[in-house]
Amino acid sequence: MKIAVLGAGMVGRAIAEDLALSFDVTSFDKSAESLNLLTQRNPSITTTVLDLSETENFAASLSPYDLVVTAVPGFMGFNVLKSVITAGKNVVDISFSPEDTLQLDMLAKENRVTAIVDCGVAPGMSNLVLGRYNEEMIIDDFECYVGGLPEIRKKPFEYKAPFSPVDVIEEYTRPARLVENGTIVTRPALSEIELMDFEGVGTLEAFNTDGLRSILDTMKHIPNMKEKTLRYPGHCELIIALQRSGFFSKNTIPCKGADISPIEYTSAVLFNEWKLLPGEAEFTIMKIRIKGRQNAITKTVEYSLLDRYDVQSQTSSMARSTGYTCAAAVHLITQKLFTSTGVFPPEKVGNNPACFDHIIRYLAERNVNWIKKEYA
Length: 376
Fold this sequence. Notes:
Blueprint: E1 2-6, H1 10-19, E2 24-29, H2 32-41, E3 46-49, H3 58-62, E4 67-70, H4 74-86, E5 90-93, H5 105-110, E6 114-116, H6 125-134, E7 138-150, H7 165-173, E8 176-180, E9 183-187, E10 194-198, E11 202-208, H8 215-218, E12 224-231, H9 235-244, E13 253-255, E14 258-260, H10 262-274, E15 282-294, E16 297-308, H11 317-334, E17 342-344, H12 347-350, H13 353-365, E18 371-375
Helix pairs in contact: 1-11, 11-13
């Protein structure tokens, strides 16, 4: 079976390498440098230089492939996903575009396409767990806390971005939607900062971000839902200072006879400041907490993850926890464990116990270990 992986960034490379264990994989990217790095790591993967923002000829480019993975930056994710569906290809998507990908459901049905979207770690595993327990519990509260952080804390930001700084800044500026007492409320990103202790890591700060995405529509019956991002204490204060000073503005300003965009300048600076160096140790920390009732008995279910950089494979924890979840979803489709046509967020996949167990088992085989706890 032939698989096309669109995007050869850090996560896209991890997906391609993992899928190459089972399939004939071709990686597409505009960056020859990124593709060359992938070839050095795994010569069996075919690489093709292609500007993925130019979607007009996707049908021809993708015709030889049985399934497509989209791992492009969020700002171009929706158009790429739409073009893949129009080409009639089953697809698993981790681009996390700001647009509502459920709008493509009818298009996918018309083209007889199975599209699993937002299938990473968060969104992704958080949705899968919620979908799984929504089938057996009356859920009152859903909470998700997640972050990717460097092991070595370097001032001033004490942060390294596993993704493009533009996508991280988008997370820091887009208003956060939460559900409180059955009503969607909007709060500023970076708001309601709280300190939380995590075993093996220590104290982190948690703050509001707009991470609920599809479950705002698919889980309207749950009265309380929120997702918060995790960073080392003090990070938020620095980001808020940059934001209030205009460094994230998209409006151009004059500077020495030229017009510059503050957000583009800031992203260029932070690209170097936040860039993960080869072999740099980092970790992904995540906690999913679901409270509710089962057979009239109140209980809480927690799924926790602490995954660290893999020295042997030289793969970052964020690439592992995100990319391998995506790869597991690819196997769901190729093994015909999930065959419905349309666009499906992970909560509509995790509600099938066989699919949920397959993904948990697939991750554990790659030493990405989710720890489950239940208590009253």
